[in-house]
Design brief:
By secondary structure, the protein is α/β, with parallel strands linked by helices. It is about 40% helix and about 15% strand. Strand 6, helix 7 and strand 7 form a beta-alpha-beta unit. Helix 2 (about 40-60) runs parallel beside helix 9 (about 240-280). Pyridoxal-5'-phosphate (PLP) binds near residues 152 and 202.
């Protein structure tokens, strides 16, 4: 059988066996509704509260500050609409960036349709937000600042603590989407100084369809949904007990192995990056000079259509993705790569490799063996490449 290597951990991760084991009882005998008074319910409630403690511990938060959601997308939406809709005043303004995940970007666009002014801050060619730009964007009517911690396409890590200080001085709630950093980098709500923080279980070896929003004590928001009094009136609906237990176990695992994994993955990522740069001409590593998550590299393979390269590599057993979020098959170049200044054809020629727990040096070496030939083959089909004057 062909070797299959998964280098797309920023899209999703496999459920860790320990996570699956922890979840199983809650899919069978421990099926109670966590709101029920009897022992079935009490067992489920105890499991949910243990998971809450585990997520809180990963973030350096108090358990009461953790609200479980259906994932990263809902956590982002709850933070953004929750804060903006709770804020008074006829005129409202929100500050965010051009490189946010669509969960934040499209929520902010929906706010604009509701009459809220939104500033989408630019980023440097390395994908970093300048905290001074945040300061300059402040208005008397600013009600929320939301800037992601680590970018899903580039892995670049924003100066969150600095931006948080600016937000705190101005008395404005500050949210960060930490879906790509939780479990990869130390994420501590006190040292970051954030008021709200989103994470998602399936990006850290937990199940899909569950996540959490950290809401600092004293920060008030309006719920997105109306129903029962679950999650301290912030997120109604019968708790997804197996999913929440899975998230709790995934958070515990992440906390245990984070520092060791960060070093190991950075070494693998660097080996992959260096190896490709040595073997293939006309490459550019995007965001390379910025602090990055240890598992991510985004590379422009000039003269190639990224989609074609993803498909060709998949046929060789290497799963990665384009920077472009084009699930619909549209050829819109990635908004992130566009924001760092890549022209459309370079953005479309870019691939993201995101490594994870099961990857080994042998996986990287296999990829280094197959990628150069595939790239050269596809480049031979490109008229622009043939016209290159440089000797190869
Ligand atoms: C995956 C992701 C999300 C969405 O999380 P889901 O749990 O898939 O809804 C949000 N933000 C970032 C940065 C992500 O990578």
């Amino acid at each position: 059988m062909m070797r299959r290597i998964y280098f797309d951990h920023n899209a999703t991760t496999p459920v860790d066996p320990a996570v699956r084991e922890a979840m199983l009882p809650y899919l069978s005998e421990v099926f109670g509704n966590a709101s029920s008074i009897h022992s079935f319910g009490q067992q489920a409630r105890a499991a949910v509260e243990r998971a809450r403690q585990s997520v809180a511990a990963l973030l350096g938060a108090r358990p009461a500050e953790i609200v479980f959601t259906s994932g990263g997308t809902e956590a982002d939406n709850l933070a953004i609409f929750g804060i903006v809709h709770a804020a008074g005043g006829a005129r409202k303004h929100v500050i965010t960036t051009q490189i946010e995940h669509h969960a934040v970007l499209n929520a902010c666009q929906a706010l604009q349709e509701q009459g809220v002014a939104v500033t989408f801050l630019p980023v440097s060619s390395d994908g970093l937000v300048d905290p001074d730009d945040v300061r300059r964007a402040l208005r008397p009517e600013t009600v929320l600042i939301t800037v992601m911690h680590a970018n899903n396409e580039l892995g670049t890590v924003q100066p969150i603590a600095e931006i948080a200080r600016i937000a705190a001085e101005a008395g404005i709630p500050f949210h960060t989407d930490a879906v790509q950093s939780a479990g990869k980098l130390p994420v501590d709500v006190e040292s970051l100084g954030v008021d709200l923080l989103s994470l998602s279980a399936h990006k850290l070896y937990g199940p899909k369809g569950v996540g959490a929003l950290y809401i600092r004590r004293g920060v008030h928001l309006r719920p997105l949904l109306y129903g029962g009094h679950h999650e301290r009136d912030r997120r109604p609906g019968t708790e997804n007990v197996p999913g929440i237990v899975g998230l709790g176990q995934a958070a515990a695992l992440a906390r245990q192995r984070l520092s060791e994994e960060a070093v190991r993955l950075a070494a693998l990522r660097d080996r992959l990056e260096r190896g490709l740069l040595e073997r293939i001409p006309h490459l550019r590593v995007n965001g390379a000079r910025a602090p990055r998550t240890p598992n991510t590299t985004n590379i422009t393979f000039s003269f190639i259509e990224g989609e074609a390269l993803v498909i060709a590599l998949d046929l060789k057993g290497v799963a990665c993705s384009t920077g472009a979020a084009c699930s619909s098959g549209a050829v819109e170049p990635s908004h992130v790569l566009t924001a760092i200044g890549l022209p459309p054809e370079e953005a479309r020629a870019s691939l993201r490799f995101s490594l994870g727990h099961a990857n080994t040096e042998a996986d990287v070496d296999y990829a280094l063996n197959v990628i150069p030939d595939v790239v050269e083959h596809l480049r031979q089909l490109s008229p622009q490449y043939k016209r290159q004057p440089v000797a190869r």
